[in-house]
Automatic annotation (TrEMBL):
Keywords noted in UniProt: Biotin
Pfam family, one: Biotin_lipoyl
Lineage: unclassified sequences, metagenomes, ecological metagenomes
Protein name: Lipoyl-binding domain-containing protein
Recorded coiled-coil stretches: none
Span of domain Lipoyl-binding: 1-68
Length: 68
């Protein structure tokens, strides 16, 4: 089974995490919300997948390319 990490497409602060380990995320499902420049940006799953790790938590600041 292939594993693919979702990376932050922009720098910002994690406002909300919408998934937990063990969840199944549908293609197009929201993984988390990143606030950047006072705008909330949903991070979308590109594929249907099972969550095996959540590398961020609310309040955490992430850089572009950081695993979420």
């Amino acid at each position: 089974m292939a594993q693919e990490a979702i990376e932050a497409p922009l720098p910002g602060k994690i406002v909300r995490v919408e998934v937990t380990v063990g969840n199944t995320v549908e293609e197009g499902g929201v993984i988390c919300i990143i606030e950047a420049m006072k705008m909330e940006n949903p991070i979308i799953s590109p594929v249907k997948a099972s969550v095996i790790e959540v590398a961020v938590s609310p309040g955490q600041v992430v850089k572009t390319g950081e695993k979420i």
